[in-house]
Write a structure and sequence with these properties.
The complex is a heterodimer of chains A (269) and B (223).
Chain A (H helix, E strand, L loop, with lengths): L17 E10 L2 E11 L4 E5 L6 H8 L7 E6 L2 E2 L2 E2 L5 E2 L2 H10 E4 L11 H12 L4 H14 L15 H13 L5 E5 L7 H15 L4 E5 L3 H7 L2 E6 L2 E6 L1 H6 L4 H11 L4
Parallel strand pairs in A: 3-10, 3-11, 8-9, 9-10
Antiparallel strand pairs in A: 1-2, 1-4, 4-5, 6-7, 11-12
Chain B lengths: L7 H5 L1 H34 L3 H15 L3 H16 L5 H26 L3 H9 L4 H31 L11 H12 L2 H34 L2
Membrane topology (chain B): Multi-pass membrane protein
Keywords (chain B): Amino-acid transport, Cell membrane, Membrane, Transmembrane, Transmembrane helix, Transport
InterPro entries (chain B): AA_ABC_transptr_permease_3TM (IPR010065), ArtM/GltK/GlnP/TcyL/YhdX-like (IPR043429), MetI-like (IPR000515), MetI-like_sf (IPR035906)
Amino acid sequence: MVDVTSASVPPVLAPPVLAVEGLHKSFGSNEVLKGIDLKVAAGERIAILGSSGSGKSTLLRCINFMETPSAGRIALDGTSIGVEGRGGAITARSGELRRLRTRVGMIFQQFNLFPHMTVLENVMEGPVTVKGMNRKEARATAQDYLKRVGLSDKAEQYPQRLSGGQQQRVAIARALAMEPEILLFDEPTSSLDPELVGEVLDVILGLSKEGRTMLLVTHELGFAYHFATRVLFLHEGRIHEQGTPDEVLKNPREERTQAFLRRFSAFHF
Amino acid sequence: MQYVWDFRPVWLNFGVLLEGLVNTLKLSGFSIGLGLAIGLVLAMGRLAPSRIVSIPATAIIEFYRNTPPLVHFFWYFYGLPILTGISLTPFAAAAAALSVQSGAFFAEVFRGGIISVDRGQWEAGRAIGMSHVQLMRRIILPQAFRRMIPPLMERSFELVKTTSLAATLTYGELVYKAMVLATQTYRPMEIYSTVAVMFFTVLFVASLGMRAVEHRLARRAAR
């Protein structure tokens, strides 16, 4: 077990499933990530906090190459993705990226369900089209995952008939159906009405009990506290502070972190 | 000055005009079908991640969109035999000119529909590991297709009217038949007016039909 009382960074016992080294990302002249180093062990649950513009979503999106890193290295199980090209940017073959993405699932703020497919078809799509699974088997797995997120009864509906919370749960089932080793959540509750946030967080918390490796960008501090094994606080494109939820959320050392948390505590009753 | 309308020559030769109409529709149907296929290929080419593919596709599209169709007709009919020794029948030359030219326009309609699909849809497809082709076929094109129907119809109607240029290649479509009849009967006013009514009737009925199809698709989309 990781000793959570003394170390500010939990020692990584197993070889990291995900390693990020010297990650930089610029959009034009705007440098969003200024050198991120991060090792993630299997089963770790990492909550990434930070004010808007701190680079937390960009970090997540660089991990599965939704954004191409401007410099640095991303490695899964010790194997680097792509090669360093001109100017430091990583160039990866599209086949390599497709394999990476079947291993690293992503859940988006806007759900992004496929509107022309039923809920069940949404969940089946990856296994059938990308993994070449036969439809019968894919249907059975999809039904399993829908059950897991509590939406078996919505299988034949079209997404636009569902509430935002239900849509996000379908999106989680869709990502799970690919059986990824790592799940990335990009502000999964930020576009939900407050009364729908709980059902999505419950599903995510349920997954955390299965020992999955997850990285989650969120503004829900209370949830981050219960969900995470490690909390990262990003500021201006760097990891400003990290540690256990107790360390970072209850006793932050850095002034920036304290200021950030104070802004949120105003809403706690 | 009082013009006396006399439609008798029109009625007496109506069979000839109908034959022309059938030829017009044959040329239109063939060119629309081939044009859509060419358009899809050109649109995919223009949107391809690789520049080796996208630049030639863009060049073809822009070239055909910005040159007069009559010139294309002449190239295929008169130019091709001179340059390559291949001579096409008036129908083949007209169909080739029309399909490639309207393919360029169709390509822009396809491209517009494709890029109008929300960025999140592209990302969601990529995030589950889809290739570019899978993403297009499974996610983007099915959603883009509905939005493309009205502009594709518009373009197809334009094409039906443009078939009249095939008259210059002596292809026996409606306008060519009308020209022949006009010189035989000295009744161009009546004949060309009838031709206009015939075009109008066909296109108007077709547009009513398409509107019904659109309506049904919209209802299905609202499920």
